[in-house]
Records
---
Amino acid sequence: MRDTAYSGLSAVLLDWYDRHARSLPWRVPPGSGARPDPYRVWLSEVMLQQTTVAAVKGYYERFTSFWPDVGALAAAEDADVMAAWAGLGYYARARNLLKCARAVAARGAFPDTYEGLLELPGIGPYTAAAIAAIAFGRPATVMDGNVERVMARLHDERAALPGVKPVLYAHAERLTPVERPGDYAQAVMDLGATICTPRSPACGICPWREPCAARLAGTAAELPKKAPKVKKPVRTGVAYVVRRTDGALLLETRPETGLLGGMLGWPGTEWGVDPEAAPPVDAAWRRLEGEARHTFTHFHLRLAIEVAEVPEGLSPDRGRFVPAEVFDPGALPTVMRKVWRLADGTLRHL
DNA sequence: TAGACGTGGTA
DNA sequence: TTACCAAGTCT
C-alpha cells in the first residue's frame, strides 16, 4: 500500500529530477516518455556495479561503438571482450556479460520483467530492478548503495548495515511510484550521488530536506552505520617478464575463475605469504629494484619483478609468446600494466 | 552467509 | 601513506 505522504515524497523527488537530472550517455532525458534501449541500460548498469560514472563513461562508449546491439556482443570473441573490459575491474562481470548477451540473443530479446531479468548471468536484485524500471517502466524497487544511504537518512535508521537492509528496503518499496518508476529510480541514485553523499551531504539544497529525519536529528553525515572493516593483509609474489630476441613477450591467460579470471597476465608465482619461485623458462633472470604495488578488495599485493631475454625457438612451461606488434598493455588488468611499466623501462636498456 | 572479487578518486 | 568509498553478484 502506498499512502499519500509517500506518494508526495516521490513526486517531490521527480520534480527535482526533472530540473536537475545529469546528462549521461546511457540516459534518456526525464519526462520525454521515450524508453531507452534495454541493451544500453543493461550494459551501463553492469558497468556501474561498484564503479563510478567517471570510470564507466569511456568503456561504455567503446563497447557501444564496437558492439552496438546485443547480437553483436553475443557474436564477439571472448578475448576481445575481456581486452575491452581490461582496467575496469571485477572481471566476472565481463565473463557474465558475454554469457548474458548470448542467452538474450538466443531467446531473441531481454526479458521485460524483474523475475525474468533476475534469471540472467550477472544480473542480481539491483540490476534486475534497475532494468525493469528504466527500460520497461515497471515499478520495481531499486536498492543500491545510494538508496540505502538515502533511506537510512530519510528515516534516521541508526542500526548498522547489512542487518538494517530489510528495513531500508521496506522504506524504498513504499516510496517506489507506479508512475515513472524509471525516472524515480534514477532520481534517487542521482540524489545519493550528488547531494546525499557519503561525506558532507548537501542537506541545504536537498529536495527532501524537510521530511528528512536524520537532518532534523543531526545524524545525516554519520548514516548509514556500517560494521567496521577488517585490515587488509599483505601478500607478495613474483611476476616474470620474458622477452624473446624478436621482441615477443610471454603472456598467459589466467584461469576462468578466481582473481583476474580470464584476463591476460604475466606468468608468476602464487600470491601469498611466502610463495615458491616459479620461473616459466630457464633463463638468466634479473630482479628489478622496484616492485609493483597494488591493492585488491581484500589484500595488498607487493609484486617483485624478474625479467629475462631468451632466444627464439624456446618452448615455455606455460603461457604463449605474443608478437611485439600485437602486444597491447591496454588489454591487461591494472596490476599487470603496473608490472609492464616497470619491466619495460629495464628491457629497453638490455 | 560471509568472503571473494578491481580500480581510481578523495580526504 | 592509508583508509574509505562507488549504480553488486556469486558462491
Note: The longest helix of chain A spans residues 4-20.
---
Amino acid sequence: MSVQERKQRERAERERLIVATARELAEQQGWDAVTTRRLAERIEYSQPVLYSHFRGKREIIGAVALQGAAELATAVRTATSAADGTRARVAALARAYLDFAVRNPAVYDALFQLDGGLAYAQEDTPEPLKDAFAALLETLDEVTGEGVDPGLFTEVFWAALHGLATLTRAGRLLPEDAGPRVELLVDRLAVT
Amino acid sequence: MSVQERKQRERAERERLIVATARELAEQQGWDAVTTRRLAERIEYSQPVLYSHFRGKREIIGAVALQGAAELATAVRTATSAADGTRARVAALARAYLDFAVRNPAVYDALFQLDGGLAYAQEDTPEPLKDAFAALLETLDEVTGEGVDPGLFTEVFWAALHGLATLTRAGRLLPEDAGPRVELLVDRLAVT
DNA sequence: GAAGCGATCCTAGCACTGCTAGACAATCGA
DNA sequence: TCGATTGTCTAGCAGTGCTAGGATCGCTTC
C-alpha cells in the first residue's frame, strides 16, 4: 500500500505545483500569459498532464481562486483584529481588502473577475468563498445599522470595495485618491 | 469630387455596420463569440476589411464602448430629469445605471470590463466617456455633503454601482435583493 | 529474477483564434 | 483605351485550448 500512498503524495504535490506555477505566472505576466503550453513547460511536464489533474484551464483558475479566498479571509481578519474601535476596524477591513487586490491582482481576478467554474452565493459554494464573505460580515455586522440585514449590508459594502478595486486597477480611477475614497466610503456607509 | 464623397459615405456606413454587428453579436452570444471571422461573415466581407477600419478587435470593442457611453449618459439624464426631489433623483440615477448594465451587458463589458484601448480619467479621454461621468456628477453633486469634493464623491458612488452591477452579473450576488441594495446604498451614501 | 500488465506520460494533431502578406480585380484619371 | 491606384480577397502564420493514440515505465505476480 505504501507505493500507492507515495504515488498519491506525488500526485498531490504535482497538483500543488501546477496551481502555484499558474498563480506565479499570472502574477508575473497576467492571466493571458497563462497558456496550457507555457504552464506545462514551467512544471516540466507535457500539456496533457494538466488535464489529468484539472478538467481544463478554467478549473486551474478556480483552484487559484480558492487559495486566494482563504488568504483574503486571513488578511481581513488579521487587519480587523489589530484595530481598536468600531470605526477603525471597518477602515482597516476596507484597506486590507483593497490592499489584497492591489498586491495580488491575478488572484483577485481569479476570484471575482474570471470564470473559475465556481458556484457563488449558493449552497454548494466552496467553503473558502463562504468564509471570505463571513470574514467581512463579522466586522461589518457591528456597523450595519438598525432595521438592515447584516448580510445585505455586507453585500453592498463589498460591492463598493469591489468597484473601487476593479475600476482602479483597470485605469478607470486614478490611484492617487484611493485613500480619501476609502475614508469617504467608511464614513458614509458604516453606522458607528 | 462627388465620387470620392460617395465612397467616403459608403465607408462610414460600413464602419457603422461593423460596430453595430459586433455589438449585436456580443449581446446575443457574448464577446467571446465575436471573432473576426464571424464578424466578417455577418457583414458579408472578408476578414481583412475589418483591419482597414480598425487596428484590431480591441478598437472595435472601443467603438462599441463609446457608443454605449453616450447611451448611458442619456439614460441617466432621462431618468434623473423625470424624478422629483433630491432623494428620488439619486435613486433614479442608481436604478437607471444598473438597469443599463442589465439590459446591455455586452456594451457594459466593453465600457468597463474589457480592454477597448481607451484612455480613462485622463486628458485625452474621449468626450463620450467624460460626458457619461459628467451625467453622474450633475445629480450627485447635490448630495455630496459638506467638505467633500463632488468628483471624489461621484467616483465612490460610481464604484459602488459598478460593484453591484458586475458582481450581480457574474453570479457573485443574487439578483433578487437588487432593489433593497440600491435603496440602502442611496440612503447611506447620499446626503439629503 | 523474469514476464506480463496496468498506469502514466508524451507526440502529434484538431479546430479554432487574431492578424497580415501578396495576388487579383475593379475603378479612376489621362 | 491605357496605366495607375484603390480596394478586396485568398491563403497563410503563429498562437490558443484540448484530446486521441501509441510508447514507455514501474509495479506485481509467478
Note: The radius of gyration of chain A is 19 Å.
